[in-house]
Amino acid sequence: MIKKVYLLIISIFITLFLLNYCGNNADTTVSNPASVKDDGTWAYILDNKLITKDEFEKTYTIFIKMAKIVALASGVSQGKIDLASQNIEKKRDVLERIINSEITFQKALEDPLFKGAEGKSIIENFYKQALNLYLIEKEVLSKINEPTKDEIEKFYKKYQKEFQANGVKDLNSDNNQEKVKNFYTSRKIKKEMEKFNAKLIGEKRIKYNESILENYLANKITKKQVEEDKEGKYWILNIDGNNLLLKDVIYIIDSQLKNTQIAKQISTEANRAKMAELILDGFKKAELGYRTAIDKGYDKNQEGKKFIDLVQKRSVAVYYFTNNILPKSNVKIPTLEDAKKFSSDPSNRKKVIEFFKTKKIPVTEDNIVKATYEQLYFEYLNQVNQSQAKFINRLKEAHIIRISEKFFETASDKIQKKILDK
């Protein structure tokens, strides 16, 4: 249960990341944005920064690369992502999200948090995470191809009972084939990631200091003690003689502890030990990935630098929104108790059961609660997006924003020609 709750927090971050990803590096300054001729050579202007079409195309390409990474990790086919990239509406949508990300990032840096030591630590950790993500993309995800028709059929036969229990009775429809393909890809990614992590672990000397983390979760070590640790005695992980200090990652842990479900789960000593183990495992993989990426020089090549810069900026923007803006709204993440209460209502329960019957899903109490929770969680994400949209709209009022119509007319013609040529 602890692992599920922890992964839930990660999934929220990933969802926000995919829906609102990107930043940019402007390359031209203009004194009067309104007077700039719309000749198709630039994509948009944000305040006094003009983004050329070439700069936007580079950023857009990285967005598609990031979308593929998240899609692969979620079991979505690369083909669908590539198809989406050929849609001019999608391209304009990405541009809007780039602008949203940039103005949120600027707003975040105005916050006192990012001006102090803790803020610098946050930004540094996001840099490490971005570099680790780039390593995973280069070493694992980019090497995973979509399964062939034969591989899908063999995979379905191997797990036919499990698929049929979940409503996938055969491979006669495109929808069922897509579901099997997603499961196949997810399983393959998991296996390749396990092999990759095992290889990294085997190449390093690793020591753990679980008791420090467990004592912090139990409030036996205070945040003040951790922040004032100048001797480095509160270390939680050591890789090849290099310590990862609790104060360097305390903001990540505290962010997770704000969730009521996690707070309840670590109320017992046994659960605190499990949570500490899970958190340490995550930090271990991130640190190993970061150090390996540095060794391979991924922080030096041009694509890597841009990729890391964009991801780092976006991470700061997402962190600011989820920790400073979202808590002030009435949006609350659903709990299993909420799902049980909601599913106990006769009318709600009837709808779920009717849906199960049409999809030939076994009607069990566990399945009903699970489906209800997924419904509540989906509604929660919609509320998060609505809250974010309101926040973004308020931010836009303080900025000058121009989008080149000429650029998108030209881009649309090129995309249309590319599709016709195929």
Features:
three-stranded antiparallel sheet; about 425 residues; about 5% strand; alpha+beta
Describe this protein's structure.
- The chain is α+β, with helices and mostly antiparallel strands and 422 residues long.
- It has one domain (2-421).
- 70% of the residues lie in helices and 6% in strands.
- It contains 18 helices and 7 strands.
- The protein has a 4-stranded antiparallel beta sheet with strand order 1-3-2-7.
- The relative contact order is 0.14.
Compute the number of helices: 18
Average pLDDT value? Answer: 82
Percent of sequence in beta strands: 5-15%
Structural class: alpha+beta
Number of domains: 1
Oligomeric form of this entry? single chain
Ends distance: 48 Å
Low-confidence residue ranges: 1-26, 74-86, 415-422
Using the alpha-carbon principal axes, give the shape.
Answer: globular
Largest sheet: 4 strands, antiparallel
Radius of gyration: 23 Å
Helix and strand succession?
Answer: HEEEHHHHHHHEHHEEHHHHHHHEH
Strand order of the largest sheet: 1-3-2-7
Q: Give a count of the beta strands, DSSP E runs of length 2 or more.
A: 7
Work out the helicity level.
55-70%
Quick take:
This protein is 70% helix and 6% strand. It has 422 residues and is α+β, with helices and mostly antiparallel strands. The strands form 2 sheets. Strands 1-3-2-7 form a 4-stranded antiparallel β-sheet. Strands 4-5-6 form a 3-stranded antiparallel β-sheet.
Draw up the topology in text.
Layout: H1 2-20, E1 28-29, E2 42-46, E3 49-52, H2 53-74, H3 78-85, H4 88-110, H5 117-139, H6 149-158, H7 160-165, H8 174-202, E4 206-208, H9 210-217, H10 223-227, E5 235-239, E6 242-245, H11 246-257, H12 260-265, H13 269-295, H14 302-325, H15 336-344, H16 346-359, H17 365-396, E7 401-403, H18 405-421
Antiparallel strand pairs: 1-3, 2-3, 2-7, 4-5, 5-6
Helix pairs in contact: 2-3, 4-14, 5-11, 5-13, 5-14, 9-13, 15-17
